[in-house]
Amino acid sequence: MQLTHRDNLQESIQQMRDSLHHKGWTGLFLVVVLMFFNWGLEARKWQQLVQPLEKISFKKAFSAILSGVSISINTPNRIGEYGGRVLYLRNENKLKAIAATIVGSFSQLIVTVIFGLIGLFFFIHRLMPAGISKWLDRNFWGNLVLAVLLIICSLTILLYFRLRIILTVFEKLRWLRKLKSYVEIIAGYQSAELRYLLLLSALRYMVFSAQYLILLDALGVEFLWWQAFLLNSVIYLVMAVVPTIAIAELGVRGKVSIFFLGFLSSNDVAILAATGGIWLINLFLPAIAGTVLLLGVKIIKDK
Question: Is the pLDDT of residue 286 over 70?
Answer without folding.
Answer: yes
